[in-house]
Specification:
Low-confidence stretches of chain A: 502-507
Distance between the termini of chain B: 18 Å
Number of domains of chain B: 1
Strand order of the largest sheet of chain B: 1-2
Helix content of chain A: 25-40%
Number of strands of chain A: 24
Number of domains of chain A: 2
Oligomer: heterodimer
Largest sheet of chain B: 2 strands, antiparallel
Largest sheet of chain A: 6 strands, mixed
Number of strands of chain B: 2
Mean pLDDT of chain A: 89
CATH topology of chain B: ABC transporter involved in vitamin B12 uptake, BtuC
Number of helices of chain B: 18
Number of helices of chain A: 17
Distance between the termini of chain A: 51 Å
CATH class of the largest domain in chain A: Alpha Beta
Bound molecules: adenosine-5'-triphosphate, magnesium ion
Shape of chain A: globular
Structural class of chain A: alpha/beta
Chain lengths: 507, 357
Amino acid sequence: MTAPLLRMKGIVKIFPGVRALDGVDLEVLPGEVHCLLGQNGAGKSTLIKTLAGAHTPEEGTIEWQGKEVTLSSPVAAINTGIATMYQELDLIPGLSVAENIWLGHEPSTVGFSKRGSERSTAREMLKRLGHPEIPVNREVGRLSAAGQQIVSMARALSHDAKLIIMDEPSAVLDQDEVENLFRTIRDLSASGVAVVYISHRLEEIREIGDRITVIKDGRTVAVNLPAKTTPTDDVVRLMTGRSVEYAFPPRQTGTPLAERKELLRVEGLTRKGEFNNVSFSVRAGEIVGLAGLVGAGRSEILETIYGARAQDSGTVVFDGKTLRPGNVPAAVKLGMGLAPEERKSQALFLDHPVAHNISAATLKRYSKLGWLDRRRELKDAAEQSTALELRPAGPMRPVRNLSGGNQQKAVVGRWLLKGCRLLLLDEPTRGVDIGARAELYALVRRLADSGVGVLLVSSEVPEVLGLADRVLVIREGHIVREAPATELDEHKVLDLVMAGTLEGALK
Amino acid sequence: MREQLTPRNEDLGAAAGAPVADEHARIERAAAESTAPKSAFARLADSSAGRNSGLVLALVVICAIGLITKGDTFATTDNVWTILRLAAVGGVISVGMTFVIIAGGIDLSVGAIVALASVWATTTGTQDIGTFGIIFTSIVVATACGVINGVLIAYGKVVAFIATLAGLATYRGLAENLSDRKTQSIDTPSGFLDFFGAEPGGIPVLVIMFAVVAVLGWLLLNRTTFGRRTFAIGGNPEAARLAGINVKRQTVMLYALLGFLCGIATIMILARTSAGTSTHGNLYELDAIAAVVIGGTLLSGGRGTIVGTVFGVLIFQTLNNIFTLNNLTTSTQAVAKGLIIVAAVLLQQRVAKTSRS
Ligand SMILES: Nc1ncnc2c1ncn2[C@@H]1O[C@H](COP(=O)(O)OP(=O)(O)OP(=O)(O)O)[C@@H](O)[C@H]1O
Ligand SMILES: [Mg+2]
């Protein structure tokens, strides 16, 4: 057997009040794809941050190629040969793509950065990642989340590392791009670079992974399982300590949908350059899914319905009333809620407590003449976070200290607490673990059964097909297909979705 | 104000070559803020006295300096009331400024608002109506100025700094026009000066007013939806908007609140000087912003306290007092003040950090 590239033993990391890591082991072989599995808050990101030199562990040893090392800083880790793509994108929005890729190790002669070679190598790397269309001079802040993820990956590649850590890189990518990502990973392994891969999607682990390490509550519960053959049930039980019903909840059977009241009607909605002439409706108690590629205009449609963007033409009629374009408070007053796509920039108050984040849209309920009933607010917020398995439970913890998946639960929790009549969910399960995902699906279905209309955007086609009653397939800002979810399957949807890119490429 | 400099999506600013120590400090700090099991000590350190211990320390040091240099005059009851009376006017404005800054805004026009309101409230026409006329005019004029600022910022989408900079010029210019640059003394034999100049139980009415404003301000910020929304729009304006908070209306209300408090401050300054003039309130904006920042409120918004601001105001006014007692020239005073602002903020950060970790 080959000697391991990396061996971590008994790693302990303590945050005040939380033992985030409580004795974790990890062993990575050269050239392998090692998957790290665990529930939200299990400690995956914390573990890889100790490996990246961003956290200093309280206890434990790290061996690199057989020698014990201390990774005291990110620079030390990079010099050792470890590059990291963090879960939360860590790019500087105001700098260009090329500048971000080379940040901290700019090619230079006597202190002058060689901008020309910086750009040309950046361009080359993006091409290797299958994205030659990303302009290297563009400000990173103006790229989509997926585009930023690609840049982040190019940055990791630019270090010529022996080990690349990827913390949920696929969360913001659609299936097409995940394929690109996997191709890159395979290239890397072929050239002997090891990858530590984190994802909550088991199918990905199956496809790309070699071995699995499972973490639960800051402890390693299983090491070096074969990624391809370990039964799903076993993996899930190791992660959650129980078996999880990960089927989708059954669809409504009562009143046929066609006889229900129409809640939302969108007519000829257009925003130039984003989407064109979009018309559809959502009935009370119905879950309508929007499938499509990242960048197809799904989020934009949702935000326009909600009033966060104003349409160029077309109307949004909610419960018989035509909404004024670009007026969020009015939409909220009528009973709409939007859990947006980008949790950090669009939804969370990072330094404020979890409870205040969850109650942010529901303040009216807790106010008597402007006075806040803080006890009731706290109680309801705590209940909501329990329902979503948000951990750790303390409602007064700043959201910033939560793991990514748990932050996502706070975003969704805000609108579940509010009790909307029409819920717009944009990638609600991004970064959420298997167990909590099942819980969330059940919750959404229960809401629908109680008469709430739901409009769901997700890049995971199985999620749209499994949860929605009716599916709209969006391609390049147009609805190309509308059908009951039962009449579609993953292949059909993907074909519809991809056809656009083929046409686009031929144009 | 180091926090300000860290990038927004900073969760891991520590990648490739970003400052490491900083990242660690941040994580440590953030971690420490989470709800660790609370011992009695931790609760003390968490109470506002504990959180503001840096400010308490700064105030103590400054008082010590006062005692050493001018012990005989500094430590008298009379002098303490003088300090508080002087602190009261700027203090009322600083409370309002705290709201605006927590919401991520700024207002440079507060001094000019005071000037305009003071002049308007002391025209012969207004004085003829009597005490009520003076009070009413002060409040209405100042609040209206605040509303104008707010509307420009929220609906006109003018950056707060620029909108209120324009306000600074315009309002003071109007005040000069209106008064012809003359001092307008209050000479109607009204009860105005009697009432606001009174000292029931030895406590000046002005000081009582400041105390009331501070307490109400604290309640408004920490116990009402208005306060919660203020934190929200300062913490993440886009998230606040998408959460259905009416950010524009809230913004207008915040600047109106600050305008209203400028009105109160105008009444106080009229009572203290018994005259209105276009030079009233000169540089109040800087004093107020300095007091708020010394008090630990983040200039970038989202975080701040009224208690800190009150300390900031007291620190500032005590300093002024010591300078005056020691007959320093105004230029020396200015230099000393600048240095002390920096020192106070540094000290405050240092202590806040150690008391937390
Ligand atoms: N800076 C911090 N301060 C306090 N607690 C923290 C901090 N960072 C992480 N934690 C806690 O450590 C635990 C592990 O978090 P971590 O981010 O490693 O989880 P994760 O496995 O990556 O989860 P996810 O799948 O949701 O990304 C969580 O309970 C989290 O709340
Ligand atoms: Mg994570």
